[in-house]
Each structure stands twice: as structure tokens, then as C-alpha cells.
Amino acid sequence: MRRVVAELALGIRLAFPSGRHGWLRTAMASAGVAIGAAALLLGASVPVMLDARQDRMLQRDDSVGLHEVPPGQTLIVASVDSQWGSNAVRGRLIWPESPAAPLPPGVPAIPGDQQMYASPALQAALAGPDGDTLRRQMPYEVVGTIAPAGLSGPHEFAYYAGYKRAEALVGVNSWRVDRFGYSLDDGEPRQGTYVVVATMLATLLLPIAIFIGAALRFGADTRDRRLAAIRLVGADSRAVLRIALGESLVPAGLGLAAGTVLYLLVRSRSADLRLFDVSVFPADISPVPVLALLVVAIVLALSAGLTLLGFRGVAVEPLGVFRRSTTWNGRLWWRLLPLAASLWLLRPVLTGASNPDEERAGIGVVLAVLALIPLVPYLVPLAARVLPSGSAAWQLASQQLRQNPAASTRAVTGIVVAVTGAIALHATFGAASARREVPDNPADPAYILQAPGPQTDAAMRARTARFESVDGIRAGTVAKYGLYGSPTSYASGHLVIGDCESLRQVATFDRCAAGDAFVVGDPGRSITLDAGKLDPAPGRKLPIPSGARPARLVGTDAQNVTFGLLLTSTPAAVAGVRPWFVETRMFASEDAPATAAGQLRGVAAEIDPLAMFTAIVPEYDKYASLRVALNLGSAVILLMMGVGLLLDVASRLHDRRRLLGVLAAVGARRSTVIWSVLLQAFVPLLAGLALAIGAGIGLGAVLMRLSQVPVTFDAAAVLAPVAVGSALVLATTVGVLLPAARRVTSTEQLRYE
After folding, report:
1. CA 560 – CA 548 distance, rounded (Å)
2. InterPro entries of this UniProt entry (predicted)?
3. Co-location of 131 and 231 in the same domain
């Protein structure tokens, strides 16, 4: 045991005084390990981070459900959640029924009427350039700040406002609470979102592992000479292997230390980061101890495993290091097993299942990305055999590709993984962005406001005019009453009252004038208003006007309503009846300003802060933050892949220097040798990119199905990553090869000591 420790220690000592190339190799390997370790430590912190966020949300939750709290030491609460661009706004109107009423977490005191406590992010937005538009949604005086204990994260838009009128609305739009901390509905992102995140992480982290491997292989020739010298003084092959393992621990240890520092830097700036509506405080980020130990074990095992793998087929002898040259004979069947497993996991999505298991689909997508790694080396000799024979340069390249395709595809594999993920993710983001610009049903409005309470014809016209004061908005307001049907019938009906322009937004008919009436379906000779809502009960009866003409509902209403009556004025029989709701439908034109949604929400809040405002068309791109993260991550990954390609090309030129020297000695032209080396780089690239295009399109279709967007592909989303990957390989290969062309094609490479 003492001997083993001494040999490992010797390897650690040899890693430092190893010359310029050795220091460069150690620095590159340490940098790759540092980035990977920091990413893994951040991943190990996710459970703690989400638990801390969820605990704060649970402590402030005020959803009593169907439970009715009796009055006493209670607080009246009304929800006025809203939206501001890509930020969800959590608003609560509160009023105490007792001096001992419970306080919301993070709020030091109950605000007075028309006063509010707001989160720091919301206060910053109110003071921003569009703050006046946002303030229309919450026209309350800011008297304090919500503490972190009452926020899900530092970027959350939230406020608690005192609202005395809520006392009269208990049971209608507000409710009582005697404490905070009920059941939690945290509103996590929609189906498909986590699968997209998992795909992005696999796309970004797998190339890092490949880069670590390339960095650890850099400068191996210097290490080989040292090991041969150690073998000459009496060390056996096992001792040499242990010394090499000790040397590999140095970049792993330095990388872990640097990765920890990088992790702490990212942690300190975590309050500036946000994904969807999720933001966290720096104190929330700490790795799970078991997972942190697992990160260390993974890094050390990866370093040791790559070192051992590098000695496969290598004999370290006292006179030098010899590599056995054998013809590559790869098997296809085992390379297809990961792909088959991923297809089996994705089968519910591919067959169109209504509610596929998202965790299973996420594992399937990540496994599909991993399945590309063993397939790339198999495609290279296949392409070399299929392509026709030609020049001497191609014959030399083809022979090398068939004999050792693994060496030719080591660096290209990272490009293939990155391009596959980029194609899938950019195609999904593009399809989602295109879809959100229009409603699912073209006849549906972009926004709807539904407010309870009686309404006159003049008041509905005035409400329409208020919304149409926003540029690019066309609106219409109608009053909707539920119709009573047979208790055994599931048919639903509506009585809709509004002017002609407003009725044209919900139905189609031949002509319209004041006083006209229209029937939908077959309501019979009369209709009965529903006075029970949740528990149907017959109300007032209204005869069908004799001159009523047929009409047909459009949009979503046509799917939900089977019969009804449309009137252009309110009849005396229902003048005193409270409608189920008064609905204003808003349509946005192409020239509507980007702030139209915020202005409409402000008008709605001025009319009734408790009214339900619904955006049929999403007001923001929920994948915008992911797109930014993908672009930044891709830039870093491509930079690392470029460095890895430089190292790999330099290493391959060094390994083949004697072969190239033999070619020069027998009279091969320099151009032939250079073209041979270039073809050895481009054929694996083309084979890998062909695989990446097919896999990226397939994964993109899966992600679109999971994200519930139409499966469509844009040529730019597919070709842009391919072009970037191709340009990267071309630039790095030519950048290394051309300066070294004279040296590697010289007979001096045959000299050997």
C-alpha cells in the first residue's frame, strides 16, 4: 500500500515541472474540469434551491379552496393576479376584520386603504420608463417593501394592497383567512418545459465532458516520454499506470478547486438570474451534501477513466511508447441499443398519447442525445467505403478513416451533440413564438374581460369605448346570461345582449339593426334564465321574439354553446336580473403597440380590480429566457469546442508525424498530404452533421408535441447550427494545419531517439 501511495505521489509531482506543454495541458484540463464541476455543483443545488422557494410559497399561500372560514380574527383576501410583459404579477387586496388578523409573510403591518407593500422588483418597474402604464393596474400608494420571506424570489412582482371595499365582496370575489400556509399550487411551467430544459442541459454539458477528454489527452507525448524513462529505471507496467493516474489527479484537483470558486461566483450573482418566473436568493443555493460528494467522485472517476482508456492498446517500454495498430472493426448492434431505449421511452409522445409522462419523455430525449456518441464513429468508415475512390489524397484519408475512425471523430462528437440540441431547441422556440402571435381559433379575441354585476346598454357601449381608446384595439361588450335546460340534459345555452357590432364578434348573421333578435340552434318558443349557476335552478322565462332570425356562433363559443338567443337591446323582463358576467372582447391589430396588453390591463383594473382579465394570446414568449441561456451557453460551448478541436488536430498531427514523414520521403506532394489531412477532418464532420440534422429534427418534433405547439420547422433553425459547426471545424483544422504544413511534411519527422 505504501508503494502505491508513493507511485501516485510521484505522478502528482511529475505533473508540475513538466515544461511549457505540460503546464498548458494541465491548465486546459483544469479549465475544462472547472466548468464541468461548477455546472454539476449548480445541478446538485437545484433540489435545495427549489425546496427553499417552495417553502416560502407554502408559508404565504392563502388558498382555502371550498373551505369557508367564519369571521373572527380573520383577514379578507382577494386575488388580483396580473401580467406585465414576461413577469407574472401576484397581487392581493386585503382588509382586516380584527386587530389580531394574520399578517402575510414579509409584510410588517396591514396597509391602509389604497396603500400597498410591494416587492423590490415591482417597485423598480413602477419607477421605470413604462411605470405609469403599470401603475394603472395598481393605483395604490407604496408605503413599504415586502421582505424576502414573503417572496418566491428576488425578481417576483408582488404586492399587498389595503382595500376596504373587499368587506362587501366576501363570497363573491374575496374570502376570509385565519392564517397563511394552506395547500400550495405553485403554478409550475407547462407540460414540455422541463423536457426542453433537460435537452438544453444535455446539449451544453455533454460537449464539456468531451472537451475535458480532449484536454486530458493534450500533451500525452511528453507524458509518454517521461513514463518510458521511468520504465527504463526499473518500474513495471502497473507502476507506470499508477504514476499516470497520479498525474491525472492534478488537473482534476485543480479543476475542482477552480470549479468551486466559479460556483461561488455564480451563486453570488444568482439574484440577477431568472428562468421563466423562477428566481432565487443566493442563500437558497447550496448543494445537497451527498450530491456534492458525488460531483467530486464523478470528476475524479472521469479523469482516471480517461487516463486508463488512453493506455488501451499502448505498451510503455524502456525504449519508448508503442501503440498497437489494428483495423477498426466496430459492431453496430450495441450502438443501436441506447437509440432503441430512447425510442421506447418516447413511444407515448410519438404515438400521440394525450398525457405522456414528462419524466419518462425527458429521460428519453437525453438518452437520444447520448445515443449519438457511439453512432458517429460507425458512420465514418461506412462513409469512407460508400464514397467512390478518387485521388491519392482521398485514398490516404479513406484508409486512415477506416482503420481508426474513433480518433478522427473524438472532437467532432461534441460538435454533433451541440448541433443536434441546437436544431431541436431553436426549432421548438421558433414554432412556439410563431404560434403565440395568433389565437388557436382565428375568431377568438386576443383578450377578454369578464366582470360580474348588472349593466345597462349605455354602460356597455361606454366600456367598449374605454378599451378602444388604446391604439390598435377593437372591442365589443356583451352581457351573458346562462339558460336553464333539462336537469338530465348536458346541453348549454346563453342569452347574449349587446349592440350589433359586439354581437358580430360572437356570431354571424345576415343583417343587424337596433331591436333585432337572433336564435342559435333550437331554443323552442321561450327560454328560461338559469338562476343557480353551479346548482341549476329555473329563473325568469323570456319568450322568443317573433321576428328572430337564425345566427351561428363563432370561435370557442360555438364549441361550448348549443342553443341560445341574441338580443340587440335589454328587454324589460331581464332589466333587473344580474347577468352571469359582462364580457368585453378585445381584438388587437397588427399595428397595436407592444404595451397594448399592459394598457388594457390598466383599463380593466380601473373598471373593476377584481374582474377577470384573460389573455387568449400569450403576452410574452415563455421560451425567451431559455433562448438567451441557450445562445450564451452555445457560445461558450462552441468556444470550448474550438479550443478542443485545436488540441485534437494538433495531437493527431503529432501522432501521425512519422507517417507523414514517410509519405514525404517516398515523394508525395505536400498538397496531397494536406488534402488528405483535411479530408480526414471533413468526412467525419459531414457524417456527423447528417446524423445531427436527422436527430435534431426528430427531437424537435418530440419537443413541439410535448410543448403543445404545431410541428413546423424553419430552414434557418436547422441550417444555422450546421453552418456554425462546419465553420468551426474548417477554421480550427486549417488554422492548425497550414502553419504546420511545412514541418509535418518533412522527412525530419522520421528522426527518432
Report:
1. 22
2. ABC3_permease_C (IPR003838), Macrolide_Exporter_MacB (IPR050250)
3. no
